[in-house]
Amino acid sequence: MLKRLTLLLLLGAAATPLAAQSSRDLDARVGKIEKELRAVQRKVFPDGQPLEPEIVAPRPAPEPIGGPVSSPVADLIGRVDAIESQLRSLTAHVEQNGHRVSQLEDQVKQLIADAEARAAAEAPPTALVPPSEIEQPAAPPPDVERPSTGDPAEDGYIYGFRLWQAKAYDRAETELKRVADKYPDHRRASFAQNLLGRAYLDEGKPAQAAVALYDSYKKWPKGERAAESLYWLGQALTQLKKPADACKVYAQFGDDYGATASDGLKAQVAAGRKQAKCG
Asked: d(Cα 119, Cα 24) in Å, to the nearest integer?
């Protein structure tokens, strides 16, 4: 900073008109940077809460020994310092958010491993069974009408939804997974993946539900059911007796969707936080 001030003083003493022109050029460039930084702020903080310190014109600085510094130059120096401070704060916030998402990924991977291990442990040993003792298949669930609107993704989601309502969970899960996998760019993909997780929860499979719901948030973070998927992911983790992880999910909900989620969903998340005893 001392070298920068010394250079500005020398330039100001040697060529006042040139310094004034340079100051105007710098002022225009700094103004452009400030505008771009505010645009970044709005993306990182969608609820409109600004970072501190704000970019404001600094108070007049005391004149240093050796001669006065021109007011425009001092103003630019203060504004550049403020921009640097905000950039450091933005970087720290983005890094913290990325670390939290990375932790969620690790937790979901562990859930998958736990679910696979549990399924392997609970699988009955293979044995020869006389034909007379083989269980007959259960009666099929109620007939559910498949819609025909001409939009296969829409039809598949609605059909899966109706199967879920009829508690035909196996068939619902198959149909909803098919929609999400086959039509990832359709708006119903977010709906289907979220409902897939809820079907697993209703069937008493919280580990599989957690994986499906995390995928809903990860693959379609701007989908219409992304925020709801984080709520249900917290519920699945609470059922798995992982309240600390559930609290992290609810915190992520606040960061990503706190400013845009409906009041009803916010109330559900608040109840979930209370249930998980989040601090």
From this structure: 70
Average pLDDT over residues 78-89: 74
Q: Which of 109, 103, 100 is nearest to 211 (CA)?
A: 109
Cis peptide before 64 (omega within 30 of 0): no
Q: Which two tokens stand for residue 10?
A: 């020398």
pLDDT given at position 237? 97
> Taking the CA of residue 22 as centre, how many other CA atoms within 13 Å lie in the half-sphere pointing to its CB?
10
pTM above 0.70, yes or no: no
Residue 7 has which token pair? 């250079």
Q: Mind giving me the DSSP string for 27-46?
A: HHHHHHHHHHHHHHHHHH-T
Long-range contacts of 30-38 (CB under 8 A, 24+ apart): 30/76, 30/79, 30/80, 30/83, 33/83, 34/79, 34/83, 37/83, 37/86, 37/87, 37/90
**Direct distance between the N- and C-terminal alpha carbons of the chain, in angstroms, rounded to an integer:** 43
CB neighbour class for 243 (10 Å; exposed up to 12, middle 13-18, buried from 19) = middle
What pLDDT score was predicted for residue 92?
73
DSSP-H helix ranges across the chain: 2-14, 16-44, 71-122, 152-165, 169-182, 188-202, 206-219, 226-239, 243-257, 263-276
**pLDDT one-digit tens code per residue, 180-192:** 999 999 999 999 9
Residue 17 C-alpha from the chain's centroid:
51
